[in-house]
Amino acid sequence: MLRLTLIVLCGCISLALSFKLNSNGLNLMSDGRIVGGYAGNIENFPYQISMNHYGSHRCGGSIIHKRYVLTAAHCTVGVILNALSIRAGSSLRTSGGINVAVAKIVQHPRFNSNTLDFDISIMYLSWNLVFTSSMHAINLPKQGEVLPVGTNTLISGWGAMSETAGSTRQLQYVQVPIIDDNSCQSAYRGYNVITGNMICAGLNRIGGKDACQGDSGGPMAAHGKLFGIISWGFGCARPNYPGVYTKVSVFRDWIDSIIH
C-alpha cells in the first residue's frame, strides 16, 4: 500500500519502492504488510498472489481469471517485464505453489503517480492457471456496485506487520470496515484527495489494523467479491488515517474490455 510512505499489503516490506514527492510533499512509497492481523491459509484466500520482481516480493495481487491478475498501478511502474512473475497457490511468500511469468502489463492509462488516482493494473500471465482449492479466481463486483459503510472486508498479504518491520513469510489477513468518503477525506485533507475511484477502510479512531508496506496491490474482499485493491495511506494502522483502496467496481467495464 502506498503509505504516504506507500505500503503494499503483505506482511512486511521486502522491497520499498520510493516515489517522488507529490504536490503536498508526501513521500509515496509502495510495498507493505498486514498490521494487527492473523496468519492465513491460502485455501481461504485462493485468489491471493505474490508479485515478484527479480525473485523478490514486490506487491500483492488477485487472480481474476485463469490468465489475468489484478494489482495496483503503482506496483507495475518501472518494472522490467522479463523479471516479473507471480507466485500462486501458497501461504508462504518464498516457497510452494507455482511461479508463473508475466507476459504483459496493462496499466490504466490515467494512473497518476502523484495522487495515486486510477491505481490499477492488469497482468497477463504467460500461461493459464489450473484452478485448485488453493488457487482460484475471485469474483468481481458489477460496474458501480456499492459496498455499504460499515461492511467488514478482508485484506490480506505478505507485507510488513508494522511500519518498521520487514515482510512476513506467512500470509496474513485482517478484517477492516468500510468508512464513509467524507470521513476519509477529512482525515487526508491537506495531504491528498479521496476521489470517486477510491474506497476507504479501517478502524478510523483507534487504528491498529491495516495494510502496510508490501501489501500494495493486494485484495480487499467482501461477500466473495474483490471490492478493493490496496493502494495507499499515511503510515500503517495509525489512528485517524484509514487505508485507501482502489474501488474495483468503478473499473469493472475497463477490466472486462481487457480480459474478454
Structure, explained:
The chain has 260 residues and is mainly beta. It is 7% helix and 36% strand. It has a six-stranded antiparallel beta barrel with strand order 12-13-14-17-16-15. Strands 6-7-8-11-10-9 form a six-stranded antiparallel β-barrel. Strands 3-4 form a two-stranded antiparallel sheet. Strand 3 and strand 4 form a beta hairpin. The longest helix has 8 residues. The protein starts with a strand and ends with a helix.
**Average predicted confidence as pLDDT:** 82
Uncertain stretches of 5 or more adjacent residues: 5-33, 206-210
The shape is globular
Main beta sheet, described? 6 strands, antiparallel, barrel
Beta-strand percent range: 35-45%
Strand order of the largest sheet: 12-13-14-17-16-15
Helix run count: 3
Topology, number of strands: 17
Q: How do the SSEs run, as a string of H and E?
A: EEEEEEEEHEEEEEHEEEEH
**Beginning-to-end CA distance, first to last residue:** 28 Å
Radius of gyration: 16 Å
| Helical/strand content category | mainly beta
- Helix proportion range: under 10%
Keywords:
260 residues, mainly beta, 6-stranded antiparallel barrel, 6-stranded antiparallel beta barrel, 17 strands, 36% strand
